[in-house]
Specification:
Layout (H helix, E strand, L loop, with lengths): L17 H6 L1 E7 L5 E7 L9 E7 L5 E5 H4 L14 E4 L4 E4 L3 H15 L6 H15 L9 H8 L4 H9 L5 H4 L4 H7 L3 E3 L4 E3 L6 H10 L13 H14 L5 H12 L14 H15 L6 H18 L8 H9 L2 H4 L11 H16 L14 H42 L5 H5 L12 H5 L13 H9 L13 H19 L8 H9 L3 H12 L6 H14 L5 H13 L1
Antiparallel strand pairs: 1-2, 2-3, 3-4, 5-6, 7-8
Helix pairs in contact: 3-4, 3-6, 5-6, 6-11, 9-10, 9-11, 9-12, 10-11, 11-13, 12-13, 16-17, 17-20, 17-21, 17-22, 20-21, 23-24, 23-25
Length: 572
Amino acid sequence: PTSLASIHTSSIPLTMSDDQESKGSFNFFGKNMWGNVVHNSGSIGSTSPESAVIKDTNKSANGMVRSIPTEDRGLSSSYSCDYRPKKIVLTSKASSDQCSPTRIQLLAEGIEDCLQELNCSATQPDLEKWSIIIFESMTAPARTFHSVQHVFDVAVGADCVQKLAAFFHDVVYYSIDGGLSVDQNDLLKDIISEDDEDVYITREKLDRNILMTIDIFGFEEGMVLDKFLGLNEFLSACMAVRCYELSVDDASLVAIICCIETTIPFRKPDSDGRLPTENLFRRLQEVNEKYDIGMAEAELVKIVQRAADLANRDLENFSYEEHAVFLSMTWNLLPESNISLRNTKAFLISDFALAMKKMLGFFDNLDARTIYMTFRENKEEEEISELRFQNAHSNVMVAKKYMRCKGMAISVVAAIAELTGGDAPLSLFLGDLPERSHTSVSAGDYLGTDHVADRPVQIDHSVLQLLSDGREQESQFDIKKSPLASYLYTMLGDIGMEECYKHVIFPMDEEHSRRLLGAIPISVLINILAAIAAVAVTRTERLNRMIEELEAKADASDRSVVCHCKMLRHFF
């Protein structure tokens, strides 16, 4: 059988399907700078891949995919490395077959290739051990965003040092994973001590490289590690050190540690106005002298710039141009910090409401200027950083309004639940999540789509489109579209939603439930109650009584809605 290591670009034919040939597209399987087979596809004007334009998997600062001529970058360029699982065509004299490399294979080969580029090496048993640690850490049940695929995504287009850091940068996710795994604990047990509440750096004697890691992070022996500001990254860096320290030189190890340190996200300038990267550079200078690393000033600058670049890759989704794509990525984070949402079949209304409250609180306190790292940029880099910031700022502002609408919608459902019998699975009120073999009725089916407010309202149409058309992808716990939130936003607008939101608390009690529902126009509320009554059949009697009370209060302008609701109730 043909060995992957022995395959060269010249030995792999250009493969084109009839459909691709008619459209002038191609699939090209070549060899990247580390000797791995990679797959590229794009549009061509001839059958020669050298004259083709290959669509690069990297995204530019504005979220657009770059298209780079192969002759401008070459198959030996770092841009041609893509660790995302792709179909690899193996050709031999005997047969031709298609297969996908395993993720452990991709991790092991990726680490090995990066080490070789640094003129270093590791044994196969070590490569296997490290790859399994990474794989098992990042396939834990809670990892809905920070998964193995996230490692591959961050590694695309990165240099060898950045990749070695990327492979380990999220292996520890202490609060989400529920502590350390057995393998993680084996590597870290002499570095930390734990009690029921806190994780400490030990005061016991530590080896040189771990002390160096502590100094690079600016930590101290005996200190309590902040679970939200550095604990995960510090322990991940220590794991990388324990794995790589016998394979790479001191300079490379320091660079890897710095790369992982900069992935501590959303840090503001310190009290003296210094950026995190400036403080890292100062500590790096001290480490270089203290541990006799022997790097020149220019090398230290490059290390911090490389680290800032990796940190920006880690948060690249914030600068995507398309809000729907950004929100899809954001939605994948929710189950990581909300255990109840991992039970996608039966989470409560209050569970979803809490998740919205927490995520909205995060975005309300997020300064878009703290998302991306910079360090001693040239003019062109400054322009890219500014564009990246503008996109991130736009995404954050849209996300705030989108999540407030989602939070308002779920709070209305929570209020209705509170007044008709109490909290219950969300599916009781809004319908089941769609499955391959099952699609249930939903409250959104009864709300319709062509809504017009009875008075002029101010609306952000980009937000309304997201609510109506949906995020780019389905999530495990929520549908893409938000029909109830879309309906409320259309009818109430920005000002009406803000006024109603004043009555939202968590959890909703009877008093605030009545206040919230009382702030919604009667015609709008009746429509919502009627739609929910069509799904929540065990609460139809109580919902109908609420509707009847509202019908008695309705003025002449609401009569058409009242008649519509009576028609709906006739069917259920």
